[in-house]
Amino acid sequence: MSFLRVYKKSNDGGLVFREAWFDEDYGQFVVNHGTVGHQSTTQDSKNVTAEAAESLMDAFAAQCAEDGYAELPPGEQSWVVAQYALKTAAGGDRDRYLEDKAKRTITEYFAWRGLGTVEKTEFVPHKLNIYVMAPDAAKAVTGLKVCLREAKLDYTKLSIGVAPHNNLAAVKQKHPLPAKTAFSLN
């Protein structure tokens, strides 16, 4: 699947995004756009061949560049880590289910709002960490709280930390506040 997501600052200082992708399985070319953190608007073209999709993607990229949109380099984004406290050190079947459902929930919710992407998940002793690369950390924290609560994913065991892209060790807890202990990825 070919995919392109680009961003720019709007006139009012907010961050807006555009993205396009081609789904070979359905022969569908999709264009999605909106303000980061808000439900986006989507348009799709059906019965598109791979050759036509390549031309559409090139035209989309050219139009975005002309309109001032660009891909955000990782250094301009932040790590946002959703962390669940686990009952056991290694995690069990229930925790693997939590990992899968949380990852799917975050991926879907964030995709339609330009909030970022789930980059990886990991189990560390007594914790599940879900790492998201986000263009706007504050909106991503709010998005995590909303989507994980709506999905009924044990919100009482959730902590959220934020770190600069180039210094994950500098993670600071953003939920819940005030932090009772230091946010640790280990």
Question: How many alpha or pi helices?
Answer: 3
Derived from helix and strand composition plus strand pairing, the structural class reads alpha+beta
Main-sheet strand order equals: 6-7-5-8-9
**H/E series:** EEEEHEHEEHEE
Give the % helix: 25-40%
Beta-strand percentage range: 25-35%
Approximate shape:
globular
Which CATH class of the largest domain applies here? Alpha Beta
Q: Give the CATH H-level superfamily of the largest domain.
A: THUMP domain-like
What is the CATH-assigned architecture of the largest domain?
A: 2-Layer Sandwich
> Mean of residue pLDDT?
93
Number of strand elements: 9
| Poorly predicted segments | none
Radius of gyration: 18 Å
Q: How far apart are the first and last residues' alpha carbons, in Å?
A: 34 Å
- Domain unit count: 2
Question: Biggest β-sheet, characterized?
Answer: 5 strands, antiparallel
Instruction: Look up the CATH topology of the largest domain.
Output: Alpha-Beta Plaits
Descriptive account of the structure:
This protein has about 190 residues and is α+β, with helices and mostly antiparallel strands. The protein folds into two domains: about 1-65; about 75-175, THUMP domain-like (Alpha-Beta Plaits). The protein has helices at about 50-65, 95-110, 135-150; strands at about 1-10, 15-25, 30-35, 40-45, 80-85, 115-125, 125-135, 160-165, 170-175. Strands 6-7-5-8-9 form a five-stranded antiparallel β-sheet, covered by helices on one side. β3 (about 30-35) and β4 (about 40-45) form a beta hairpin. α2 (about 95-110) packs across α3. The chain starts with a strand and ends in an 11-residue tail after the last strand. The mean pLDDT is about 95.
